[in-house]
Amino acid sequence: MTKDGTKERHKKRKKEKRFVDVDNYMINIQGRKIMERNRIRYTLTKQGDTFAGLAAEFALMEWQILKYNELTKDSILKEGQIIYIQPKRSKAEHGKDFHIIAKGETMYKISQEYGIKLKKLLAKNNMKQGDEPQGGTKLFLRKRKSVTE
Q1: Is there a single domain that holds both residue 66 and residue 104?
Q2: Residues 6+ apart with CB under 8 A from 16
Q3: What is the pLDDT of residue 22?
Q4: Is 23 in the same domain as 73?
Q5: Averaged pLDDT for residues 3-15
Q6: Is residue 129 assigned to a domain?
Q7: 56 with 111, same domain?
Q8: 31-79 residue pLDDT tens
Q9: Smallest Cα–Cα separation from 99: which of 125, 123, 119?
């Protein structure tokens, strides 16, 4: 060990899990699993998580967490909730062309499930903000629903 403690710090860094994105930007991940859906990284909330805490953990600003997940400051986080740490996409990944609505599913929940911006999902299905489809409805995830479908 040197006087400035570089060897000790080096050992400490090795133990930490690191996340490296395309730009080689590293994020320390301490006990939180990072998953990917639709080429977007996300995590699941734990009990006691806050927007400020998540933002700090992933080296983001609180407004980014809110924007990426289409939430407001007064939204309440629930344990197991999907939280994207990158912006969502305009359409679902290849091979996920549509989704059949199950009873009780919301458009927001589906947008989070597939990593699609809610506004884009609504537009693809000729719906307006606040519209919720009935169970059994075929929801388009990649292309716009034609008027006859």
Answers
A1: no
A2: 28, 29, 30
A3: 47
A4: yes
A5: 48
A6: yes
A7: no
A8: 788 999 999 999 999 999 999 999 999 999 999 999 999 999 999 999 9
A9: 125
pTM over 0.85: no
Considering 84, 108, 129, which residue would you say is the last residue of a domain? 84
Determine the 3-state secondary structure of 4 from DSSP: coil
Q: What's the pLDDT band for 131 if we cut at 50, 70, 90?
A: very high
Is the CB of residue 88 less than 8 Å from the CB of residue 111?
yes
Q: Which residue has the tokens 């930490």?
A: 16
Q: What is the rounded average pLDDT for all residues in the chain?
A: 85
Q: CA 149, CA 147: separation in Å to the nearest integer?
A: 6
The answer to whether residues 51 and 110 belong to one domain is no
Residue 147 lies in a domain: no
Give how far Cα 67 sits from Cα of 59, 85, 117, 142, Å.
Answer: 15, 10, 10, 22
**Is 146 within the bounds of a domain?**
no
Burial class of residue 86 (count of CB atoms within 10 Å of its CB; 0-12, 13-18, 19+): middle
Count Cβ atoms below 10 Å from residue 68 Cβ, excluding itself. 19
Structural domain boundaries, residue 78: 6-84
Residue 149 domain flag: no
Residue linked to tokens 């407001």: 72
